[in-house]
Prior knowledge:
By secondary structure, the protein is α+β, with helices and mostly antiparallel strands. It folds into 2 domains: about 1-50 and about 70-100, Arc Repressor Mutant, subunit A; about 100-205, Muramoyl-pentapeptide Carboxypeptidase, domain 2 (2-Layer Sandwich), CATH 3.30.1380.20. The protein has helices at about 5-15, 20-30, 35-45, 75-95, 100-120, 125-140, 165-170, 170-185; strands at about 20, 50, 70, 140-145, 155-160, 190-195, 200-205. The strands form 2 sheets. It has a 4-stranded antiparallel beta sheet, covered by helices on one side. Strands 1-3-2 form a 3-stranded antiparallel beta sheet. A hairpin with an 8-residue loop joins strand 6 and strand 7 (about 200-205). Helix 2 packs across helix 3 (about 35-45). The longest helix is centred in the middle third of the chain and has 25 residues, at about 75-95. It starts with a helix and ends in a 9-residue tail after the last strand.
Amino acid sequence: MSTDTTRDRVLGLIASSGPITAASLATELGVTPAGVRRHLSALIEEAYITEHEQPGPVNRGRGRPSRSYVATPEGQQALASAYTDVAVDALAFMRDHGGLDEFVEQKVAQLEKSLAASMGAEGTRGERVDALATALGEQGYATSVRPGPGGYTVQLCQGHCPVQSIAEAAPEWCEAEARAFSRILNVHVQRLSTLAGGAHVCTTTIPLAGASTKEG
């Protein structure tokens, strides 16, 4: 995607407020109509936006209706990538200047609270692992549970991670996430592989029996 900040702002406003006309974009962004049209032409050429098709018959009287624009799926993806780049840069800044560990722990604590609320508190450990997989799926992770060797463990597998770019920049995220799983399930878990580390899936081994983390 273009590194032009104004173009990014144009795309972002179209994605959030579309269908939207060039005149409205110029007013919202405080730029000239000519400047907006230049960015619109470039975004159309990149297939990031498209003209919005008005439903029903179009009234051709008294001039052509103003064109309005919406973001395409490619535009939505490009916008997400741009925001990810900013997030990764922010993590690098925090690593250099302090605050990264606190940030990661806070965000993963929010994830843990959300997962725990979705799961409830009852069930066997196997049932709770299944509930955790379902809760993670609702958060955007492509999650499955597979039996481990001998039937003494299960493997929680995450085939997609919505924060993979973040985790690649901050492996602390994966470590904090595993600790959150351990607290939710009340048992020690072992992270075997991660997408952020280059594997094709995140794999966490979870024992089906044994002492809880609160015992001993």
